[in-house]
UniProtKB/TrEMBL annotation:
Listed InterPro entries: Acid_resist_chaperone_HdeD (IPR052712), DUF308_memb (IPR005325)
One of the Pfam families matching this protein, by short name: DUF308
Name recorded for this polypeptide: Uncharacterized membrane protein HdeD (DUF308 family)
Organism of this sequence: Nonomuraea muscovyensis
Entry keyword set: Membrane, Transmembrane, Transmembrane helix
């Protein structure tokens, strides 16, 4: 803890950076979405090239899957740069279908756990909310994209505030010279 207290200012800078990012995301959601898509594209390209390189260096058993994975990742990166709108929409659909499928599985688990636990209805309600969220994203994808960016922005601001508060609490633990 003493080591962390010595670099309390680093925690403070992280918090301030998160707050600034969050505010900018809330002020300029369209630009934020585009930047996230560009970062994803850059990551996918780098990941693809390294995976492809690994594929050519591995044995015959895992080589094909690594090469295929690398090519798919490179293609995803290219698509993100060429068609950023489609990429952001694809991300929304991934989140929507994940919410629907995980919600259905939570509902089924809640029903199956009725005899084992009490208050299983909480899991069923959580699953139903997840399904509704996924369906709403599919019905209104434009609003869903904007909402995702806003959630990122709000999270960043709250996280930043927590880090700033933590930095001053940690600073008090530093030994006084």
């Amino acid at each position: 803890m003493e080591q962390l207290a010595r670099v309390w200012w680093m925690v403070l800078i992280r918090g301030i950076a998160a707050i600034i990012f969050g505010i900018l995301a809330l002020i300029w959601p369209a630009i934020t979405l585009l930047v996230l898509v560009i970062f994803f594209g850059a990551y996918a390209l780098v990941n693809g090239f390294f995976t492809l390189f690994s594929g050519f260096r591995h044995d015959a058993k895992s080589r094909a899957w690594l090469i295929i994975s690398g090519i798919v990742s490179i293609l995803a990166g290219i698509i993100a740069f060429v068609w950023p709108g489609i990429t952001s929409l694809a991300l929304l659909y991934v989140v929507a279908f994940w919410a629907i499928f995980s919600g259905v599985s939570e509902i089924v688990a809640g029903i199956q756990m009725r005899k084992v636990i009490e208050n299983e209805w909480v899991l069923i309600v959580a699953g139903a909310l997840s399904v509704i969220f996924g369906i709403l994203l599919l019905i209104w994808p434009g609003a869903g994209l904007l909402t995702l960016v806003w959630l990122v922005g709000v999270f960043a601001v709250l996280y930043g505030v927590a880090m700033v508060v933590l930095s001053f609490k940690v600073k008090k633990l530093a030994p006084q010279h």
